[in-house]
Amino acid sequence: MGELLKTSQSGGKLSPCDIEANFDDLHPPLNDQQVNSWASRCLFCYDAPCITACPTAIDIPRFIRQIATDNVIGAAKTILSANIMGGTCARACPTEILCEQQCVLNTGEQEPIEIGALQRHAVDHLMDSAKTHPFKRAANTGKTIAVIGAGPAGLACAHELARLGHDVMVFEARAKAGGLNEYGLAAYKMAGDFAAKETKFITDIGGITIKTGQALGRDFSLQDLQDNYDAVFIGIGLTNMRNLGIAGEDLSGVSNALDFIETIRQTSDLSTLDPGEDVVIIGGGNTAIDAAVQAKRLGVNTVTLAYRRGAEQMGATNWEQDLAAKNGVIIKHWAKPVEIVGSGHVQAVRFERTQLLDGALSGTGDMFDLQAGSVLKAVGQTLVSDDLNVLDIRRGKILVDASGMTSVAGVYAGGDCIASGEDLTVQAVADGKNSALEMHKMLEG
Q1: Cβ count near 50 (within 10 Å)
Q2: Distance CA 301, CA 219 (A)
């Protein structure tokens, strides 16, 4: 469908076909002509800045040159050797502020190479056509490692450990593996059940077992894993939803944006979902944008995203903000929620206008209400740390050293639960892989 959405010609509810079209690939794959055109424009820079902008350090000029010389499988192997989740990252990572922003063509006022689209082309081609897994396991080491969490960090760690010859047991609290790739990204970014397909591709290397429905603190403890495995990796992400801390938050119709996104991702017939006529999203990150745009694509009449600061302070990228605007989302800046109004069910959200005074956010005393049939909170998540009290946790993140090891020997961590950089899939993959390499060194003595 692309960046623009289908709307009802009659002003009524969208048809199932229109909704299905709205949730098709946001960026359909490139055709052969487009691939050749973009690949031929690359300058194949030596010491390319696009490589250093990628947390997983993919050799971008090399894989584009391989595409340009019709070695698409080789290009995919170059990508996946650095980032085993190159398929997801090509779809969902903000390449516009990472590798593509650093493309030297920008300095000449030209369009940067569409690196993400070329990456997707190569990885999809390999995943669709390869008869065997592109990576082989090393000889079995006899070591077993426990991984907590089957999200990007945990799966990347498990794959690298398996490739190095270790056996890996992954414990996942949810019913499916994939983490936010499966549950928390907009459906139009991960069309075609790609998260599940990628998880299978990763585990097809062998040596990886995933146990779903297994939660830390409920079904096992960290000590259990330390006692029974040679090392442990924690990739649990941030799963505790932040509250607004205002009156009316417990009203019917008020929920978390991630729960809304999860419902969309796990519903086979999206035409059965009805968020209501007036949806208000509170937050300024990419999750808020994903929720707002998907609400519009379900056919909601009025979707308003409210953020307490200005556009430049939003966590969402400029591209994501533009996408919301193109899809008819109303964005109100400098609006702090002070009360959710309703009797049993939400009816409106009361906001106070804000401003910056000497760099600090301050209320102006000017209030306004937004009518709301439902409210989605997207104000961030925190670490669930009750079962990790033996670890050093600072500012809501697990403290790790340069190798990814926590304050407890043999226990490593990565992804959103540590402070390693941006909370992005590509960063989580880098954390998981790096921890695996360091763990391997430790296990091999």
Answers
A1: 24
A2: 44
Separation between Cα atoms, residue 50 and residue 39, nearest integer Å: 15
Backbone angles phi, psi at 271, to 5 degrees: -70, -10
Which residue in this structure is represented by tokens 């926590």?
406
- For the chain, what's the residue count? 445
Helix pair angle (115-129, 32-41), 10° resolution: 130
Would you say 256 and 377 are in contact if contact means Cβ atoms under 8 Å apart? yes
Least Cα distance to 202 among 219, 181, 186 occurs for 181
Closest CA to 114 of 5, 46, 27: 27
Strand partners, 148: 171, 234
The candidate with the shortest Cα–Cα distance to 183, out of 168, 169, 199, is 199
**In sequence order, what are the beta bridge partners of 241?**
381
pLDDT in tens, 9-38: 555 688 899 999 999 999 899 999 999 999
What domains appear along the chain, each with residue ranges and CATH number?
A: 31-129 (1.10.1060.10), 144-238+383-444 (3.50.50.60), 241-380 (3.50.50.60)
Q: Tens of pLDDT along 364-402?
A: 999 999 999 999 999 999 999 888 999 999 999 999 999
Q: Which two tokens stand for residue 402?
A: 């340069």
Backbone conformation region of residue 75, classed left if phi is above 0, alpha if psi is from -120 to 50, else beta: alpha
Residues 280 and 351 sit within 8 Å (Cβ to Cβ): no
For residue 261, give the nearest of 319, 182, 197 by alpha carbon: 182
pLDDT one-digit tens code per residue, 58-102: 999 999 999 999 999 999 999 999 999 999 999 999 999 999 999
User: Would you say 84 and 127 are in contact if contact means Cβ atoms under 8 Å apart?
Assistant: no
